[in-house]
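Fold this sequence, please.
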Amino acid sequence: MFYAVIFFSILVLLFLLWDVKKPPKFPPGPKWYPIVGCALQISELRLKCGMFCKVVDELAKYYINPYGLYGLKIGRDKVVIAYYSDTINEMMTNEDLDGKPDGIFYRMRTFNSKKGILVTDEDLWVDQRRFILRHLKDFGFSRAGMVNIIQHEASFLLEELREIVNEQGGKQAEVSMHDLFKVNVLNTLWSMMASKRYDRKSEEITDLLTMFFELFQNVDMVGALFSHFPFIRFIAPNYSGYNAFVESHQRIYTFLRREVENHRQTYGNYDMPRDLMDSYLREFDNPKRGEFFSEEQLLAVCLDMFLAGSETTNKSLGFAFLHMVRNPEIQEKAFAEIKEMIGVDRLPEWGDRVKLPYCESIVLEAVRMFMGNTFGIPHRALRDTRLSGFTIPKDTMVIACFRGMLMNSHDFPNPSKFDPERYLMDGKLKIPEAYNPFGFGRHRCMGDILGRQNLFVFITTVLQHFRFLPLQGAMPDDEPLDGATAAVKPFRASIVPRHHD
């Protein structure tokens, strides 16, 4: 028994020594402790800094190097943070880093397997991305097609805002601003996905979007507590976020299954597919269909597109209007440009952006403020590789921190200030070389054009007809909320019709 205890103790000691040993030429970073890695240091910094991206900022002061990356270990996961623009570019164009993270957090969201499009890799990702882009173009996912869909939705938005004002007396109305556009933004993509437009008064859709907003604020881009320490979901399922994660995904899959079943019952009545759901269902009937087509894959793709269609654009709109409510003079400059260049007798169009450089600058700055507080979707090393001269072991998670690229004072002086003027020179648009919020290479966000079109058309349309003012004595807080993606804190504002005086 004595020797067994000694032997076991030696094994434990060897494990602990192995667990804190960094791989050769791994990027510099905080000290690793047994089992937890850097988790305790990161937790302490979160109490001090708040947002995880600010924790990354703080760590960069000590561990960043001329190559712009450093290494962490959170629980059992090795994580490398790519911080500078050149490093992020190298990371996203290195095929060895084309993988996406694996593990319970990423598999549980898609039926305990790797499915969908956002966090898949290799042949599955290539095959499904190609299929999705090819068929979405048939239903409007192209520059011309999307413009019509977005402008149609912007007209609905305008009427909905007028209705809200009329319901509150006709002169002005108090509205919730941080999520004002969420249903309209979702509609622009969902019309191509499922030929459906949701009413902003639909309790089901607003509840689902609110639930996902809350879920996104309780995890971060490196996962949740239960993803780094899987055993904790059995000990503290609520505290670890496990129960909320499972419940939210069960609810949305119930909703999506109903949509798919509705399509299944009717798609045979049409000679041609109506939308992406129809295209998938027809592929199921194809005896030569690829190995990656299944109902679970369709549901996972719908989930990913559902989130993609509401997350980035809606939150960028939140940042835009937060700062315009805090700085109404930005709205007035934009309106003056709209009035002078296109007038008020027709709605703005995507093609007007060349005439409206100040308005387009608002879009650029809104995306910078959102992505500058956000991380890219994590990548995973498919094999041992190198990044900026350092060794990245297989299965290491590599994350682009856009804060280092978009919130640095060298490329963006006074980076925390919302300043559309920074993109203008002699009245013309001049975008800094470091401005790459949608990524690089084939991992560039496939919805970047849709997002920019949504932002431009929605912002110019509502500013053409309304002012958005702070409530008396209630200036909204400009400190973002943390989460998988950053968000503005919930706030309300007064919406006032312009009447084109």
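Residues 22-497 form a domain with the Cytochrome p450 fold (CATH 1.10.630.10). The chain has a mean pLDDT of 87.
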